[in-house]
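Running co-folding for S-adenosylmethionine.
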Amino acid sequence: GNITKPKTEKGANHLAMEYCVLFSSRAESNAAQNRKATDYYPIRQEFQKKQKWVVLEDQPCHARTIEEGLQAKHIEGKGRVVFAVRYFKKGKFVIEYHGDLLHLADAKEREALYAQDPGTGCYMYYFQYLSVDATKESTRLGRLLNHSKIGNCQTKLHDIDGITHLILVASRDIESEEELLYDYGDRSKESISAHTLLKY
Ligand SMILES: C[S@@+](CC[C@H](N)C(=O)[O-])C[C@H]1O[C@@H](n2cnc3c(N)ncnc32)[C@H](O)[C@@H]1O
């Protein structure tokens, strides 16, 4: 659909503006058809005021517009990786970590299920009081960024029309041809011994 001008509050920062321009049409068109997680999970009243929980459907045609400036490649020993194919200024929106937005308890339940199949990769990202499950294969690139403690991106929660999105922004200036990396943030002993990549 057409990219519509976002309704942003006065004083909203530039990142928010840019991000809304990219996402507002999708957020609007999704609003009606999205299954709300609140349809499935009872949510504490004070929580509900702040957040609308939704399960976002995969939108490959929008992904092409949104995921501009990035390219996925395959690298021996790392699997798929994502490279910048243009310059990203520090603080700018890079990509959405797109998946199902879940409560922690539901995320843990799904993880236990995935653990039964050793072929399932790790695409569950925990952030404060929620988790985004991007395990399902899709055309979206956010799920393909690899880990580094000294990466060039960082995660942030971003609200668009009351819907929470997990996004990655540039933590420093990123040049074209650089691999996009962020800190998965998992410092638990069990995870580190299961996935040595988390050490670095
Ligand atoms: C969220 S996925 C990232 C995309 C993944 N490379 C793929 O091909 O689908 C997480 C998985 O990527 C791999 N990975 C992430 N960071 C890595 C790194 N620094 N070195 C090697 N493998 C890494 C691990 O297999 C990890 O379980």
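Result summary
Residues 1-65 have pLDDT under 50 and may be disordered.
DSSP finds five helices and twelve strands in the chain.
Job closed.
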